[in-house]
């Protein structure tokens, strides 16, 4: 029984071929294809308004050098948001519950922000490792602590997204199993549990949106430190 709870996090395969790449690319097919008209319908208008709001939110704290990252950060936000929300549907697979995928997204982007800072302003980027006014005896210890906190950032990004989505999916499955078990025995308790499941599902929708936003927001903050 315990193993079956985690079967939903196994990468789906068809004839021995992993389908995780297909599950990552499929959400992009849900967006309407742009054409030569500026506004075609309400869905396109809502899509353009959402993309504009997301881009403005991430680019406001950055200078003009950081605006080059607008396409990457906005595309990543839309991808994570779509995958997280579609993963809440029944009989679907959520790629963002895989730590390997989240690390594959977090590590290259974090490294790119770090290398950008070391190339453009190396003294300022290295100065983050040692706060101003640090007593001389504490300098070696603080440099080691700040270096460790810097190197652990991509791991924190990947683990945060994976843990929050995995915990939510497990809670939904556990409560759903309890509802089906209690229904023939205690119908009243089962109905009460179903109402709790409805509230939890609404909460998980919010968590899916918030985690996608936090992932990209932290990347933009790391970029802001290095430009």
TrEMBL record:
It is a multi-pass membrane protein. GO terms for molecular function: proton-transporting ATP synthase activity, rotational mechanism. It catalyses: H(+)(in) = H(+)(out). InterPro entries: ATP_synth_F0_asu, ATP_synth_F0_asu_AS, ATP_synth_F0_asu_bact/mt, F0_ATP_A_sf. Keywords: ATP synthesis, CF(0), Hydrogen ion transport, Ion transport, Membrane, Mitochondrion, Mitochondrion inner membrane, Transmembrane, Transmembrane helix, Transport. The chain crosses the membrane at residues 12-31, 69-89, 101-118, 138-158, 170-190, 196-223. GO terms for cellular component: mitochondrial inner membrane; proton-transporting ATP synthase complex. It comes from the Eukaryota. It is found in: Mitochondrion inner membrane. Component of the ATP synthase complex composed at least of ATP5F1A/subunit alpha, ATP5F1B/subunit beta, ATP5MC1/subunit c (homooctomer), MT-ATP6/subunit a, MT-ATP8/subunit 8, ATP5ME/subunit e, ATP5MF/subunit f, ATP5MG/subunit g, ATP5MK/subunit k, ATP5MJ/subunit j, ATP5F1C/subunit gamma, ATP5F1D/subunit delta, ATP5F1E/subunit epsilon, ATP5PF/subunit F6, ATP5PB/subunit b, ATP5PD/subunit d, ATP5PO/subunit OSCP. Belongs to the ATPase A chain family. PANTHER family: ATP SYNTHASE SUBUNIT A (PTHR11410). This is ATP synthase subunit a. The lineage of its organism: Eukaryota, Metazoa, Chordata, Craniata, Vertebrata. The gene is ATP6.
């Amino acid at each position: 029984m315990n193993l079956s709870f985690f079967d939903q996090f196994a990468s789906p395969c068809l004839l021995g071929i992993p389908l995780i790449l297909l599950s990552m690319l499929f959400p992009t097919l849900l967006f309407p294809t742009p054409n030569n008209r500026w506004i075609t319908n309400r869905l396109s208008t809502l899509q353009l308004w959402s993309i504009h709001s997301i881009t403005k939110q991430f680019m406001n704290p950055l200078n003009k050098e950081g605006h080059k990252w607008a396409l990457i950060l906005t595309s990543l936000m839309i991808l994570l948001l779509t995958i997280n929300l579609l993963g809440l549907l029944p009989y679907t697979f959520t790629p963002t519950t895989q730590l390997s995928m989240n690390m594959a997204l977090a590590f290259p982007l974090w490294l790119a922000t770090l290398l950008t800072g070391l190339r453009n302003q190396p003294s300022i980027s290295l100065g983050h490792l040692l706060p101003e006014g640090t007593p001389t005896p504490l300098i070696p210890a603080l440099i080691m602590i700040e270096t460790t906190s810097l190197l652990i950032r991509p791991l924190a990004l990947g683990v945060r997204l994976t843990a929050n989505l995995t915990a939510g999916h497990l809670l939904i499955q556990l409560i759903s199993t309890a509802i089906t078990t209690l229904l023939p025995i205690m119908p009243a308790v089962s109905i009460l549990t179903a109402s709790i499941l409805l509230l939890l599902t609404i909460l998980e929708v919010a968590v899916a949106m918030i985690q996608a936003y936090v992932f990209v927001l932290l990347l933009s903050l790391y970029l802001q430190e290095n430009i």
